[in-house]
Amino acid sequence: MEYRQLGGSGLRVSALALGTMTFGGRGQFAAVGDVEVDEARRIVDRAIEAGINLIDTADVYSEGRSEEIVGEVLKGRRDEVVLATKARFPVGSGPNDAGLSRGHLMRACEASLRRLRTDYLDLYQVHERDGVTPTEETLEALDTLVAQGKVRYVGCSNFSAWHVMKSLGVSERRGLQRYVSQQIYYSLLDREAEYELVPLSIDEGVGILVWSPLAGGLLSGKYRRGEEPPEGTRRANEWHEPPVYDEDHLFQVIDALVEVASDHDASPARTALSWLVGRPAVTSVIIGARTESQLEDNLKAAELELSPAGRRRLDDASVPRLLYPYWHQKNTASDRLSPGDRSLLDQAR
After folding, report:
1. Distance between CA 82 and CA 14 in Å, rounded?
2. Is the domain of 170 the same as that of 217?
């Protein structure tokens, strides 16, 4: 397992991370998985044995049950892992039971610590933008949690590029804790993150943690053109995240993925994960599993090295078209491009 620096921090995390959205099976998350303690313990044991040191969860997953299960299975070995969780979404019915206000974040952190049976979080992430709470208030609350020793590092998730940059500017201006990472959706199927979020990470030294790297299972190899979603999959269970806007593009990517996977004697899922592990600014790719067999296949992505021809085949099948102003920059500013600029402009059409 390769270990990488998380953004501008001193923290080193594994190139693959273990996501726990499949733990719990409560509420809307029952469509994703219903892994309980015994199976979760086997999954976590195998992940740690394979070298994974980053475990990611969130207070909203299965109404807190995911955090409870993680806390149970990590008893006696908490310090072996980098433990990350998130807050922002509703965890109650009250008017202050959601968002990124000082009050909600302080309470949410304390509740996560109790469920996880720990006195500190290695990485505390704001799970989504809150457009009504001042950015200063959110960052001051996170800074307080770090000063109290309850949180080591802070990150954001699902922000637009301007949201991240505004936050970094406030942190610098106020001398507050800076986001060391952003957790984003990014996959072979959907590469919109390459327009701004990836260049931002390269330029500002913010690590990228990738969620749903298999596009909600669409890149697992189970889906084929003209066929219904297989029974038991997320799509069959009415889980439609990420949305599919262009089925022709979806199956163009799947066809290329199956072809390259066959050339490398690997599964489509393992191939898609390996492609992401090798992308610019990606620190860690979060894999989730409902079974040990799924986990075993995904873990092999850490060892799979795609050939240059295979990587080009996947790039060509999935490359995003340039939107304005990027096509104009490619045509007129190619003499003075930064590494962040080049991460998009050198390969997009």
Report:
1. 9
2. yes
